[in-house]
Amino acid sequence: MSADPFALFAQWYAEARAGEPNDPDAMAVATADGRGRPSVRMCLLKAHGAQGFTFYTNAESRKGGELAANPNAALLFHWKSLRRQVRIEGMVEAVPAEEADAYFKSRPRDAQIGAWASDQSRPLENRSALEARIAELSREYDGKPVPRPPHWNGYRIVPSIMEFWSDRPFRLHERRLFTRVGASWSEGLLYP
Fold first, then answer.
1. How far apart are CA 164 and CA 174, in angstroms?
2. Any idea what DSSP says for residue 107?
3. How far apart are CA 9 and CA 17, in angstroms?
4. Taking the model in full, what pTM does it have?
5. Is residue 112 part of a domain?
6. Which pLDDT tens digit goes with each residue over 25-60?
7. 171 tagged catalytic
8. What angle do CA 179, 39, 155 make, to 5 degrees?
9. 2 pLDDT band (50/70/90 cuts)?
10. What is the pLDDT, as a whole number, of residue 68?
11. CA 113 to CA 107: how far, in whole Å?
């Protein structure tokens, strides 16, 4: 058994990238607003390591607003074909601007334009309105680099809890719970 949950996650994630047929980097991101009302949506993991788990989004979206009001989040990775899942809970912090800039530059140009065009989570009158904005921005940035929008940023979940779940026969699953204690981790098992 690994005493390092980040090393265990890296191992499982590598196995998922090699064997999970659909979106091994997909994760459910659960947030709650300032009054504690929860919401959840799928996002893509873009970085992971001892610092935490990083994804990018529009800071003016519903999740961005919820993270500003309540900087706690939970993640769930479910790799169905591997019969595994990982739950993570922790505090959320914005990634440094340089890190967000570097990731934004690595994105396909159409995704960069889309980050400017979409008022994420707000009502859209019709699809053609979005397509018109994309066309307008494509003309504006024709032949020029697309800068990162000021409202588009990365978030890092710094875990306090990490649970590794493995399917076992007769629903007697294995659940390994890592809990942060200061700068180190304690490990235990949970009943299935």
1. 8
2. S
3. 12
4. 0.93
5. no
6. 999 999 999 999 999 999 999 999 999 999 999 999
7. yes
8. 60
9. low
10. 95
11. 10
The reply to whether 113 falls in a domain is no
113-149 per-position pLDDT tens digit: 999 999 888 889 999 999 999 999 999 999 999 999 9
* The two structure tokens encoding residue 10: 């890296």
Give Cα 77 distance to the centre of its chain: 10
**Catalytic-labelled residue, pool 37, 171, 175, 176:** 171
Residue 41's identity, in one-letter code, is: R
Nearest to 43 by CA among 88, 5, 102: 88
Q: Enter the DSSP assignment of 161.
A: E
- Burial class from Cβ neighbours inside 10 Å (0-12, 13-18, 19+) for residue 75 reads buried
Angle (nearest 5°) at CA 83 between 78 and 85: 35
Question: Residue 45 has which token pair?
Answer: 């993991």
In a domain, 70, yes or no: yes
Q: Which residue, chain included where needed, has tokens 């809990």?
A: 179
State the CATH number of the domain containing residue 38.
2.30.110.10
- 132 falls within a domain: no
Rounded CA-CA distance 121/119 in Å is 6
Note whether 177 and 158 are within 8 A (CB): no
